[in-house]
C-alpha cells in the first residue's frame, strides 16, 4: 500500500540566528496508485519536500505517513520507496544488469529472483539488448531508463522522481514522459514527481501540487489548476503564455483599468480592487468589445500570439495561425465570454470568482 499523508510538514534549515524556513506547514493526502506532480519555481521547496518523504532530509515539524505508517524516524531503506534522480547516479564500472541488480544483492534477494526482476524491468523499459553495456556506452535516454529500471526492480510502494528528465533534450524528454506514463499504467505504483516544468506537470500528473515559497498554493487535477486557478500565482505559473492578469477597479458591471473602462459580460463578484484574469485563447476578435492596442506579433505555426495593451494592462491574445492578423499599432476589439473571466482579490491574490 502506497498512500502518503503529509500533515503540517515543516522544514527549517540551519540553526540559531541563521535559520531558514523552507517548508511552512504543508498538508496533502495522496491515494495509493496516484501519480502526483509537485511543481513550482526554483527554490519553492519541491526537492526539500520530496527528500523529506524519501528520508534524505530530517523533518523539522509535522508527520509523514507512507502506507499508514509514520516514517518520520525511519531510514530511507526502511520506507519502501525508490528514488530516481536527475543525474541518474549509475555506477560507471558496472554493467546495466549489475546496476539494476545491485540494490537487490545488498538486500540479499536470491539470484533467481534478481534475474527474474531485472529481466522483467528490462523488458518493460526495452533495455533487453543493453544489459551487458556500461553506462558510458549508453545514450542519455538509455541511462535514464536504467535509473528507472533500478527503481522498478525494488518493487517499492512509492516511486519518487526528482526532476529526472531535466538532463534530456526536448525530443527525448517528450518521449521519456510517455514512457513514464506507460510505466505508471502498467505498474500502478504511487508516484511523486518533482519538476519546475509546467508542461511536464500538466502532462504527467493525475493531480498537481503547485508550490510557492514553501507553501502549497493549490492541489488539483490538471483541469482544475488550469481551469480554476486558486490564486494569481497559479494562474501565472500554469499555462504558456500565462493567463492575462489585469489589476483594476470593478464598479457596477464595468472594470476600470488605467484610463479605460471595459464592460463585463458577467459582473464581478463584488465591486472594488480586483484582478481580472483571462486566458490568451479565451479572447476573440469581434465588434464592440474591449480595445486592444497591438504592440507585437509572434507566429508560432498553428497559432499566432498578439501582444498589446487593454488600458494600461498588458494582454496576450492567441489566435489561429491561418487568420489574417491585426497590424502593429492598430486597436482591435476583443470579446470574452463571462464564463472565461477569473476574479482574484487584488491584495491577497486569492480567487474570489
Ligand atoms: P529547484 O527547482 O531550484 O531545485 P526547489 O523548489 O527544489 O528548487 P529546494 O531545493 O527544496 O527548492 O530549496 C528550497 C529552499 O530551501 C531554497 O530557498 C533553498 O535555498 C533552501 N535550502 C535548500 N537546502 C538548504 C540547506 N541545506 N541549507 C539551507 N537552505 C537550504
UniProtKB/TrEMBL annotation:
A molecular-function term among this protein's GO annotations: ATP hydrolysis activity
UniProt keyword list: ATP-binding, Cell inner membrane, Cell membrane, Membrane, Nucleotide-binding, Sugar transport, Translocase, Transport
- Domain named ABC transporter is located at 4-238
Q: Name one GO cellular component term.
A: ATP-binding cassette (ABC) transporter complex, substrate-binding subunit-containing
Q: Does the keyword Chaperone apply?
A: no
Biological processes per GO annotation: carbohydrate transport; glycerol-3-phosphate transmembrane transport; glycerophosphodiester transmembrane transport
**Name the record gives this protein:** sn-glycerol-3-phosphate ABC transporter ATP binding protein UgpC
Which species does this protein come from?
Rubrivivax gelatinosus (strain NBRC 100245 / IL144)
| Lineage, highest ranks first | Bacteria, Pseudomonadati, Pseudomonadota, Betaproteobacteria, Burkholderiales
Query: Its encoding gene is what?
Result: ugpC
